[in-house]
Structure formats: C-alpha cells, structure tokens
Amino acid sequence: MKYLIGIDEAGRGPLAGPVSVGAVLVPVDFDWALVEGVRDSKKLSEKKREEIFERTRELVQSSPLRFAVSTSSAAYIDTYGIVPAIKRALAEALSKFEIGPTNCRVLLDGSLKAPEEYLHQETIIRGDDTEPAISLASIMAKVTRDRLMKRLSPKYPAYDFHVHKGYGTAAHLSVIARYGLSEVHRSTFCSRLHVGSKSV
Asked: What percent of the chain has pLDDT over 70?
C-alpha cells in the first residue's frame, strides 16, 4: 500500500450554503511533523485553521502531500438530500487524485463511506480527533467552505454569511424570519421555520 487518504466533511448542518468534503493524500510514511498542530477542525480557532490550510498548500509544492475539496450546492442538497450530496462530493474529491483504488488505504470520519471500489477503507468514529489525515481533511473542507460563504456574503448582504457561515445562529434565524430565504438557503432544512422564500 503506497498511499493513505483521509476524508472528512464540513457543513452538514447549516441552513445555507454547500456541504464540502475534504480529502488528503499522503505516502504511508508521511512525516506529520511537517503539519504541526493538526487536529479536529472544530477544536481549532479560525486563525489556526487558516494557518494550517496555507501551510498545507505550501507542502503541496514541496512534498508528496496532496489535497482536494469538492462541494455539493444547497440546490443539490434540496433535490437529493444531504447524504447523497456528501456522497457525490466525496466521490468527486477522490477522483481528483487519479490514483487506483487498490493503491491506497482510505480513512473516513464518522459515518462516511468511500465508493465500494476502494477496497481498503475504514470508517472511524471521531477519526477527525485521532487520525491526522482525517483531521487535516476536516480543516481543508472547513476552511474552503468558510471562504466560500465569505465570498457569498456581499451578494446577500442582509444575511451576514461571513459571520455565521450559514449555520442556524439566533442572528441568522432572526434575519430569515424577517426576509425569508435566499437562493443559497437549503429550503428543506428551513421548512420547520415556516418562512417564505425570496432573494434579498
């Protein structure tokens, strides 16, 4: 086995924006000291996540480490559901490596599964806290998604996506109650809120 791939997702629960899946590929003997401070993205500050994200991008230039992040949109989530949306993004992220599925061991967080042709795969509960490859994948997925929500924010200024990244905070719920849903909201996630749908 030549390669190890770690996979995790970010944005399963928000009311707006895409879900993202991160995948990190390294040789099985990769020196994790090169990426200091890697752990579950939820346990790191935004500043620390950004630092590790940039460090990882640098390592792509100077080491055998590679990463890929794919997303499924709010519209896709509304049409097919969150689990198929994650499955689609996961398969797309893996395909970017262009590596034969028998050449790698795939470690996935939580309830995630790789396509069945990846014979050497293992799903690990809380793997984002115990496996560096999964932890780094969670950071890459989270930072990519957060940056996307920040880029969306000026287009939908009433919603402050740059602040809450689409999660159901009190401030976000208050704005939804006032203005309804934008076109990047997941209407299926917001159905219990009993709000209208309109763009602001």
From this structure: 96
- Give SS3 for 122: strand
Q: Which residue has the tokens 């198929």?
A: 84
Q: Distance (Å, rounded) from C-alpha 14 to C-alpha 66? A: 27
Residue ranges of alpha helices (H) inside 35-126 are 46-62, 74-80, 82-95
Q: Which residue has the tokens 């287009």?
A: 155
Cα-Cα end-to-end distance for the chain: 51
| pLDDT tens figures, 38-81 | 987 888 999 999 999 999 999 999 999 999 999 999 999 999 99
What separation in angstroms does the CA of 62 have from each of 11, 12, 22, 27, 34?
30, 32, 20, 14, 11
Q: What share of the chain is helix, strand, coil (3-state, %, to 5)?
A: 50, 20, 30
Domains of the chain: 3-151 (3.30.420.10), 153-193 (no CATH)
Distance from CA of residue 92 to its chain's centroid? 13
Cβ burial, residue 165 (10 Å; 0-12/13-18/19+):
buried
153 vs 48: CA distance, rounded Å: 22
- Give the CA angle between residues 17, 75, 191 to the nearest 5°: 80
State how far the Cα of 196 lies from the Cα of 99, in Å rounded to an integer.
46
Identify residue 193 by its one-letter amino acid code: L
